[in-house]
Here is the input.
Amino acid sequence: MKEDLIDLLERINSEFSGKLISTGIEEYISKLIGNSVINTEYQNDVLAGFIAFYANNTETKTGYMSMLAVDKSYRGNGVAEMLIVKAEGHLKKIGFKYFDLEVLKSNASAIALYAKKGFSIFEDDTTHYKMRKSL
Ligand SMILES: CC(C)(COP(=O)(O)OP(=O)(O)OC[C@H]1O[C@@H](n2cnc3c(N)ncnc32)[C@H](O)[C@@H]1OP(=O)(O)O)[C@@H](O)C(=O)NCCC(=O)NCCS
Here is the structure.
């Protein structure tokens, strides 16, 4: 699974000219595997997409979406929506109240996706929006 995640993220990071993940991809994935919940969606043995989210802030009961990525050739088929709904289900089940994320202001398709799934902007810096959904 790790190799598939690295391959997918390398492709996606180059779509963003390296701006999505500024550290090394392998290091980033290892950190995700160690500390976050990762849900993958395989279609015909190919990694179509995955979501990685942190579910360890039991004090604030806030989950944090660290990464959501769908392979280019699998986009527009509801894979991202399905991954978000599944992550929300996980967080609700463990009693979490909020789901937060950060998105590049230039990433219009992701912002449209998050708005559709009920996330709202609660903070705005020069490059990113912080968005939150109440669960
Ligand atoms: C953003 C991304 C995850 C969407 O994945 P996807 O599986 O194609 O998304 P879905 O098919 O579930 O789309 C659901 C909704 O998202 C929005 N959306 C998705 N792609 C869009 C696009 N190209 N333009 C506008 N809205 C878009 C729409 O609201 C869509 O709902 P609709 O089909 O009813 O219009 C995918 O494009 C991706 O991996 N992009 C690169 C990585 C990335 O930007 N990740 C987010 C980092 S914060």
User: Anything to note?
Assistant: The chain has a mean pLDDT of 96.
